[in-house]
Amino acid sequence: MAKKIVWFLLAIATVIILFLIVGTSQSPKSTSSQESSKETKIVSYSRDPLVEETSLTTRILIIGDSIGFGIGDEEGLGIGERYRALLSEKENVEINLNNISVPGYQSDELVEAIQNQDSQALIQDAGLIIISIGGNDLSRLQFQENLEVAFEETLAIYIENIDLVISRINQLNPAATIAFVGLYNPDRSQEAIITSSLSKWNNETQSFLNRKSGVVYIPTDEIFSDDLENYLSADGFHPSGAGYQAIAELLDDVLDEMDES
């Protein structure tokens, strides 16, 4: 009787061991299959968005002076970053933004800057080029004795310089859209001759740019006159964050109108 019990227990033990061996040998295959399936899904998922982003990339380049750079913006965003945010809200695109603006630049210095190979490579790669220049050309006139004569000479040279800039950009990248930011008057208490000079400066600039294909003018003076105190930074000259936001929104509106026309 004892022998039968022993043999019975051995038989049960053998069955259990065989079950464990078979179960163990099959379990890794099932796990491996599941992991392989997950890995395939992850690779497929990560690949598709990359292809989509590559085909829907907007490249923006900003060139010019301190306003192009973003001086005065409390958040350090400037026109470029604020426009990028507006664009991101409307379109599912990857936005590549480069800013090579230099505070203090005058138009002749911008002409020199775009001869640089690195600058030209960025120009060739950009879909939208935002230009802010002219404020420093105009502001130096305050030291001239004969303001009217100096103004006409400076304006003529300035128009020649922006013609060189626009022409060079068109040579390097004829498909790019160029957005040119106009000047605003930071001090409404100035003499009438200074105010009229700024208006003429903007009108001449806009008139010249209107003859250029693929170029839009961003008229900032009117929007700043509506809320000058809020739109100026503490230095009383550069835009505040709110001012840059207003420029970015105007830029967005003008470019939308251009796309619809």
UniProtKB/TrEMBL annotation:
Listed InterPro entries: Ester_Hydrolysis_Enzymes, GDSL, SGNH_hydro_sf
Is-annotated flag, keyword Hydrolase?
Answer: yes
Q: What is its EC number?
A: 3.-.-.-
- One Pfam match, given by its short name, reads Lipase_GDSL
**In the record, what terms sit under GO molecular function?**
phosphatidylcholine lysophospholipase activity
Query: Could you tell me the keywords of this UniProt record?
Result: Hydrolase
Q: State the superkingdom.
A: Bacteria
State if Kinase is listed as a keyword. Answer: no
Q: What class of enzyme is it?
A: hydrolase
- Show the PANTHER family listed in the entry: SPORE GERMINATION LIPASE LIPC, THIOESTERASE 1/PROTEASE 1/LYSOPHOSPHOLIPASE L1
Please give the name of this protein: Spore germination lipase LipC
